[in-house]
Write a structure and sequence with these properties.
Blueprint (H helix, E strand, L loop, with lengths): L2 E4 L2 E4 L4 E4 L11 E3 L2 H11 L6 E2 H8 L7 H15 L9 E4 L3 E4 L3 E3 L9 H32 L3 H15 L4 H17 L4 H17 L11 H6 L6 H20 L4 H13 L3 H14 L4 H13 L3 H18 L4 H21 L3 H14 L4 H13 L3 H15 L5 H6 L1
Antiparallel strand pairs: 1-2, 1-8, 2-3, 3-4, 5-7, 6-7
Length: about 425
């Protein structure tokens, strides 16, 4: 399958060239792109499984064999592919994201049997000679430009890249990614010992490690406040880790006292140590510095909820969702693992309160950008059933079963 038609694009996987064949806008009809090698391999793998969920683990094994591809790496490659195909992630015509699981090629795919028309041999030979002349010139200019760029800017970009990559890894909520974040934060601190953001990031990673990957198996699914209530962080190893995290967070705050990032890190440590009132006060300072700090809104929402202030918790969660929506395109890798679950959680709250209209609104907001989010889809099905549209509810559940290869007992689920 070297040449295929995917939606409006004719793709030659042997060369990586994709050409748009049909479009209502004549200005883009006939445009061509040459895909990067990994982008091309990813599209080919998706095209081999049209309409099927392809997990991140499968993508990593097939497109990066023998290497580790993080969620960040896969997401960036998907983003480049969408750009090449002119696809909108909020209204996908080609690649649909299945939150926390993988991706699905939703466009029609068909093989191209006849070869493309070729030019006469003498013309083709001339074109090839001209091509190599231009390619050689471009390569020389690129090498000279790269050498100049490295000599002029040798320190700053790598350091910035380390911090950005560390932040992306930290937000993936997996042990391997968290360990990678710790290593990158430490490297950044070595290069920039006065970086408050790096000390804050390292503190956050250590708290997250203690919260998610320490203690007994029985406590694995608990939230931060759930772990504190269960004394799951009372063991000596966790306490030592939290003490180190507090030292790092206090150093970060000393370096950048008015930063939402450093204030958030200290609030996170205080929360894990059970000092909720002090943590809330620090989080409030952080929100004064940056009202759109969605991580702070999420954390303070959990503390409000744990201390019985549910109205304030809902306001914080909704503010977090709105801030994530605003910053999604700038922080997609960090926000993607969180936003759909937060919106769905809000939908669940209003569903349990039998506020059908508000619950439906939240579920539909989630499904608008994460069409196959399981919790939101099933929640919406329950709302539809509760408001008299049982046929629509069953259809939603059955479509979820079919597309994600699930086995939900739909009648029982929508009635639950």
């Amino acid at each position: 399958m070297d040449k295929v038609l995917i939606g409006q694009w004719q793709v030659d996987f042997s060369s990586g060239v994709c050409a748009r064949l049909n479009h209502t806008d004549s200005s883009v009809k006939g445009e061509t792109h040459r895909l990067e090698p990994k982008t091309c391999q990813l599209l080919k793998y998706l095209a081999q499984h049209p309409g099927q969920l392809v997990t991140k683990e499968q993508v990593s094994a097939k497109v990066w064999p023998g290497a580790y591809a993080s969620d960040e790496t896969i997401a960036r490659t998907i983003s480049r592919l969408r750009t090449s195909l002119g696809d909108d992630p909020k209204n996908p015509q080609y690649i649909e994201t299945v939150p926390k699981r993988g991706y699905m090629l939703v466009a029609d795919v068909s093989s191209i049997a006849p070869p493309l028309p070729t030019r006469p041999a003498n013309m083709q030979s001339q074109l090839w000679r001209r091509y190599w002349q231009i390619a050689t010139s471009i390569l020389l200019v690129s090498l000279l430009s790269y050498g100049l760029r490295v000599s002029l800017f040798n320190d700053e970009p790598p350091a910035k890249n380390l911090l950005s990559r560390a932040d992306d890894y930290y937000h993936q909520i997996r042990l391997a990614d968290n360990e990678m974040a710790i290593s990158l934060y430490q490297q950044h601190i070595t290069l920039h010992p006065d970086s408050g953001a790096a000390y804050a990031g390292l503190a956050n990673s250590l708290v997250q490690k203690a919260l998610r990957w320490s203690g007994t198996q029985d406590n694995k699914g608990l939230t931060l406040t759930g772990k504190v209530a269960a004394d799951a962080l009372a063991d000596e190893a966790s306490q030592q880790q939290l003490l180190r995290a507090r030292t790092l967070a206090e150093k970060a705050l000393a370096l950048q006292p008015d930063s939402a990032t450093t204030l958030k890190a200290l609030g996170f440590v205080l929360s894990a140590q059970g000092d909720y009132n002090e943590a809330i006060a620090v989080y409030q300072q952080a929100l004064q510095a940056d009202p759109q700090a969605w991580q702070v809104q999420l954390n303070i929402g959990e503390l409000y909820q744990a201390t019985g202030n549910m109205p304030q918790a809902l306001l914080a969660y909704e503010a977090a969702f709105n801030a994530m929506s605003e910053r999604y395109h700038q922080q997609e890798v960090q926000i993607r693992p969180w936003i759909a679950d937060i919106g769905s959680m809000l939908g669940d709250h209003y569903l349990n309160a039998t506020d059908w209209q508000t619950a439906e609104s939240w579920y539909r907001r989630v499904i608008s950008f994460a069409p196959l989010h399981e919790q939101a889809t099933l929640g919406l099905a329950r709302v539809l059933h509760a408001t008299g549209d049982t046929a629509g509810a069953l259809q939603l559940c059955q479509q979820l079963n079919q597309r994600l290869q699930k086995d939900y007992q739909c009648q029982a689920v929508i009635s639950g």
